[in-house]
Specification:
By secondary structure, this protein is α+β, with helices and mostly antiparallel strands. It is built from 2 helices and 4 strands; from the N terminus they run αββββα. It has helices at residues 4-7, 57-62; strands at 18-20, 30-36, 39-44, 53-55. The chain is globular and about 35 Å long.
Length: 74
């Protein structure tokens, strides 16, 4: 399992972010990418210049964020 410090040491330059939208996504969406075995990066397509936040699978679950909503497996 990763800890918070290790998550930010991971290289995400090649990460493939996907969007989860409740509607037409005309104003932007939350994006999510798997960046490791137990590591995720969460971004905002409306603010691509802002670095994504990083979470463990456990942290995503605690926040109610389901990777399946993005078409990703946990």
């Amino acid at each position: 399992m990763q800890n918070g410090t290790d998550l930010y040491a991971l290289d995400i330059s090649g990460a493939s972010f996907t969007k989860a939208c409740g509607g037409p996504c005309t104003e932007g969406c939350v994006t999510l990418a798997r960046i490791g075995e137990d590591a995720w990066a969460l971004g905002d397509s409306k603010r691509p210049d802002v670095a994504p936040l990083r979470f463990t699978t456990e942290e995503l679950d605690a926040a109610g964020i389901d990777p399946a909503r993005f078409g990703l497996g946990a």
